[in-house]
TrEMBL record:
This is Dephospho-CoA kinase. GO terms for cellular component: cytoplasm. The lineage of its organism: Bacteria, Bacillati, Actinomycetota, Actinomycetes, Mycobacteriales. Pathway: Cofactor biosynthesis; coenzyme A biosynthesis; CoA from (R)-pantothenate: step 5/5. Coiled coil: none annotated. Keywords: ATP-binding, Coenzyme A biosynthesis, Cytoplasm, Kinase, Nucleotide-binding, Transferase. GO terms for molecular function: ATP binding; dephospho-CoA kinase activity. It catalyses: 3'-dephospho-CoA + ATP = ADP + CoA + H(+). The keyword Chloroplast does not apply. One of its GO terms (biological process) is coenzyme A biosynthetic process.
Length: 291
């Protein structure tokens, strides 16, 4: 299974990218869609929101009045944190159900609006950021969604900055041209990187001829992914922009981590040596026993 995190600021056009990935064969787990499902009338999620924010967030038919909720929840950090504490566990549980049902050979694309803010990027083999500049996003939100400009800017300001998104991005996809140009870029990404990456992970084999990429932020991303992959089986992880060293915890042998590393996209090529399965980036991981 190859897991891809897809995100971008509100109004950036993630839905266009997700639709094209779905057409190519990916299984889309849409965070926004699930977030609506878990607060439908009669759900525990909606009941919890009413208890937290009051009856004023309900429409006349008993459904959630989203603009009313947004006006409260995005007014300050405390209210936003309260909203997230209610909805995020529900969305996470439903997402896990859908991923489990997709099967072991699927390419899973999780469309998560707050992927960066919730610090879940290390869970994925790849993170795709869809980017459009702020002014264009405001124009789209006002023009196509009917938002008041001040509300649109408030929603944008409440999300991650471009710098924070760049720090977790394995793929930076600029959605500034025509829709067809964006779809063509997604098709090329699927053909050249995602599809062979998925095949390599399934076979636990390294990518052939992967290039070295100049990306100063990758060392931290690689470190975090290895910690998520190995957890308490590692005692130390150090990384650069194309290599990492993992020191295993006391009593843990290489056989104890080999399969997990393969599933995470690091294929064993020799004793203690693993190479990345991603055809878009060369990386080597060394595994050492505890001294």
């Amino acid at each position: 299974m190859l897991r891809i995190g897809l995100t971008g600021g509100i109004g950036a056009g993630k839905s266009t990218v997700a639709k094209e990935l779905a057409a190519l064969g990916a299984v889309i787990v849409d965070g926004d869609k699930i977030a609506r499902e878990v607060v439908e009338p009669g759900t525990p999620g909606l009941a919890a929101l009413v208890e937290a924010f009051g009856q004023g967030i309900l429409a006349e038919d008993g459904s959630l009045n989203r603009p009313a909720l947004a006006a409260i929840a995005f007014s300050d950090d405390e209210s936003r944190a309260k909203l997230n504490a209610i909805t995020h566990p529900l969305v996470g549980a439903r997402s896990a159900e859908l991923i489990e049902a997709a099967g072991p050979d699927a390419v899973i694309v999780q469309d998560i609006p707050l992927l960066v803010e919730n610090k879940v990027a290390p869970m994925f083999h790849l993170v795709i950021i869809v980017w459009v500049d702020v002014e264009e996003r405001v124009r789209r939100l006002v023009g196509s969604r009917g938002m008041v400009e001040d509300d649109a800017r408030a929603r944008i300001a409440a999300q991650a900055t471009d710098e924070q998104r760049r720090a977790v991005a394995d793929v930076w996809l600029e959605n500034t041209g025509t829709e067809e140009a964006t779809r063509a870029a997604v098709r090329a990404l699927w053909r050249d990187r995602i599809e062979p990456f998925a095949a390599n992970v399934a076979a636990h084999r390294p990518a052939a001829g992967a290039p070295r990429v100049d990306d100063p932020a990758y060392a931290e991303r690689l470190t975090n992914r290895l910690w998520v992959t190995l957890g308490a089986k590692a005692s130390a992880v150090t990384a650069g922009d194309a290599a990492a060293t993992v020191v295993l915890a006391d009593g843990v042998g290489e056989d104890d981590v080999r399969h997990a590393l393969g599933d995470a996209g690091f294929a064993r090529v020799g004793a203690g040596e693993y190479r990345g399965a991603d055809p878009g980036r060369a990386v080597t991981v060394r595994v050492e026993l505890s001294a």
